[in-house]
Amino acid sequence: MFTYADNAATTKLSENAKKAMLPYFDELYANPSSIHSAGQKIKDDINKARETVAEAINASSGREITFTSGGTESDNQAVISAALLGAERGKKHIISTSFEHHAVLHTLTKLKKQGFDVTLIDPDLNGIVPAEKISSAIREDTALVSVMYANNEIGTIQPIAEIGAVCREKGILFHTDAVQAAGHLPIDVQQQNIDLLSLSGHKFHGPKGSGVLYARKGIALSRLIEGGGQEKNRRPGTENVPAIIGLAAALKESVENIDTESEQIRRLRDKVISGLLAIPDTRLNGDPEHRLPGNINISFEGIDGESLILLLDNIGISVSNGSACNSSSSQPSHVLRSIGVPQEYIRGTLRITLGRYNTFEQADYIISSVTKIVSYLRSFSSVFKKDGEEKLHAV
Ligand SMILES: Cc1ncc(COP(=O)(O)O)c(C=O)c1O
User: Fold this and answer.
1) Can you tell me which atom of ligand 1 is nearest the CA of 211?
2) pLDDT at residue 393, rounded to an integer
């Protein structure tokens, strides 16, 4: 049974989003910068999409929304813009966490080389960064705090409204990477005291290569690349119109169904978690309660996670061992290390991320397949494990 359970890596495009996009590959192809009526119609449609996104996150207006190429670009632009604004006022200190996505961490590494001082806070052992830890790291010269809403590997949810309140009180800009949270957790940029926020369309059943950067009114964004005046001079280049339209449709649909969908996904998740924790020498990584509805990050002692993933793949189950963006790296996950997962468990980690289209039948299939394959892998010595894939049909 084909079972896609890698929804943190990407999601299937929703039918509604696809339908909304199709005319923009066909008759609605004019350039939104053209002054003729065909172009102006597209420009209006982009602005409607902007209002849809603004409404979904309770921004005060579509003018606070910039469309980008995805979560990576939004994170880069948010962090760089806030850093440069701080530097103009002599503030060159940035606070973030050690388990952010590399889109934030690698941007911070670059800023460090340019003379910024960066403090990375470790999450607690349950994968949560308490607001007090952020508060006590704040200095006179702090320009920006960047803390993700939910972690992409272990799914833990951060107290972003509290962190935002601490920042607001001290006049420090607050950015949150909400790429994994969108569509699953409520986002209200006003109530949650958020100044800058990143979204990625393909994580909530929108198209790949589409993203949003929310910047509260009055925050001047720096351009990452040079060119024309699109996106109010914040993001040059002819707009990816179908992607913008699809992102807005997918976000609207996700937000409208957030309660029922999250509840359904949470029930599937809890079933899989309790089924897999029945396997001996197994640990769930990250807080059991404060985690994304679909996230299961689980480690089995004494096996190689990659073999487990490949054997699952052979029987139609798609899961991963960490962040998809990082799967080519053989480095142990920086996220699992940041929460102190023991080395003998890190190797045997699976990230199963459930979503809108998963069923209870698939949950049962995941539990029975993982249980069989873990015991199969454990029954061999490490030398014998090398030809494990050939023996797949035995399980
Ligand atoms: C938390 C987080 N931030 C940023 C990104 C990057 O998003 P994109 O793939 O749209 O560039 C991802 C992608 O996995 C993510 O999980």
Assistant:
1) 10
2) 37
